[in-house]
Amino acid sequence: MLKLIYLAIPCILFFFFFVFSIQKDVETNCMQGVGRVVEADAPGIHLIIIVDDGRKMMARSLGSGVVVMPHARVALCYTIDSSGYSADAPLIPIRIEEITYLK
Question: What span, in angstroms and rounded, lies between the C-alpha atoms of 66 and 64?
């Protein structure tokens, strides 16, 4: 009986570690925007996204699988990169989580 308890406890613990260690999808709270990707003429900045309401953004980082092409109309899901944000800067630094190309 005691051997059964010594065997059952590690099995139950292993099961709980397995169940709670499974990676769950993390949902990001991102802002939505529709705009156009254009080439920039500023040094060190290659592409700018101009959203339909007039805001200009530059991609500081990209989510996995995100490819940005110039001269395309896009719908994007983004978060503002607060480490590079400045209120007086002409460009808003963002991280692009998802991008969809429109016709």
Answer: 6
* CA nearest to 89, candidates 62, 58, 61, 68: 58
Strand pairing class (56-62; 72-80): unpaired
pTM across the whole model: 0.64
Quickly list H helices, the chain.
2-21
Cβ(96)–Cβ(69) under 8 Å? no
Strand residue runs (E) in the chain: 31-39, 47-51, 56-62, 72-80, 92-102
Q: Which residues pair with 99 in a beta bridge?
A: 76
Each residue's pLDDT tens digit in the chain (103 positions)? 778 888 888 888 888 888 777 665 556 678 899 999 998 877 777 788 999 988 899 888 888 888 888 888 999 999 988 887 887 888 889 999 889 999 8
Nearest C-alpha neighbor of 55 from the set 9, 91, 3, 102: 91
